[in-house]
Amino acid sequence: MADEIDGLNFEQRHGKERVRVARVWRNEDGRQSVVEWVVSISLLSDCLAAYVRDDNSDVVATDSMKNTVYVKAKECSEQVSVEEFAIGLAKHFVSFYQQVTAAIIKVVEKSWDRIDIDGQPHEHGFKLGPEKHTTEVIVKKSGYLQMTSGIEGLALLKTTKSGFEGFIRDKYTILPETRERLLATEVTASWRYNFESVHSIPSKPAYFTDKYQDVKKVLIDIFFGPPKEGVYSPSVQNTLYLMARAVLTRFPEISSVQLKMPNLHFIPVNLSSKDNPSMVKFEDDVYLPTGEPHGSIEASLSRFWSKM
């Protein structure tokens, strides 16, 4: 928020970063559930005096923000999605503190997945998965809501049905064209919902958790194609676009989607020596996996009326 000081515009916010919290729910039937969240809070508030004068009377202490996370986690008597927790936390800050005009809450949820033992889901056993479920919500005193959800660390790889041809060739180009290569990426995706009020969000239990799983499934399905024949990818760019378009086509409540898909290179291995000219002859089988440098591809796709 902007204030005018001595003819200058001054904007400020303050909050608490990386508040770690875990919450366990224990059902009467013995089944237990767990979540682990990393919460970041940023408050827009009327506390100008703290910056320009020796007056902290309107400042919400960041330690109080941290403590509030644990209090609100305790108050969740039933399991909630990361989105529901973020919205509830933001609503608290804008309603409890007169000085706070808006709250921005970011939460990253680690993927503690229930394990199976001998084909049976364990009542209280979990393993940590690679992906992270993310959300960011902005709530204003008026009840205005802006919210996005997302996924980080979705690692995908297919060993065929990928190529790259017809790109610009100049004096700096040594990359050969190909219609057969290994394609690997680690998807970071975020999507914005079209809900614009805290009163308009669906009340259906597990709505956002289910939607997260549905969006992830669409992204994976488009990347790989049908189980037997797969689908050909002429570039990471084309595959990214098809994935984003599929999300908007499938989910009318999503107004925009952003994808980052680095091209994680697997370099064909050919080894030879004077005495052994074909020590290792590459036949689409032996690769050198590399992490960097890697190609960087990202794009966003939105409906015309979306505010992104």
What does it look like?
The protein is an alpha+beta fold and 308 residues long. It is 21% helix and 38% strand. The protein contains 5 helices and 12 strands. The protein has helices at residues 49-52, 62-75, 82-96, 207-224, 236-250, and strands spanning 2-5, 8-11, 14-26, 32-45, 100-117, 120-140, 145-158, 183-193, 254-260, 266-268, 287-289, 298-302. Strands 3-4-5-6-7-8-9-12 form an 8-stranded antiparallel beta sheet. A two-stranded antiparallel sheet has the order 1-2. A two-stranded antiparallel sheet has the order 10-11. Helix 4 (207-224) runs antiparallel to helix 5. The two termini are 20 Å apart.
Q: Strands, helices and their partners?
A:
Blueprint (H helix, E strand, L loop, with lengths): L1 E4 L2 E4 L2 E13 L5 E14 L3 H4 L9 H14 L6 H15 L3 E18 L2 E21 L4 E14 L24 E11 L13 H18 L11 H15 L3 E7 L5 E3 L18 E3 L8 E5 L6
Antiparallel strand pairs: 1-2, 3-4, 4-5, 5-6, 6-7, 7-8, 8-9, 9-12, 10-11
Brief write-up:
The chain has helices at residues 49-52, 62-75, 82-96, 207-224, 236-250, and strands at 2-5, 8-11, 14-26, 32-45, 100-117, 120-140, 145-158, 183-193, 254-260, 266-268, 287-289, 298-302. The protein is an alpha+beta fold and 308 residues long.
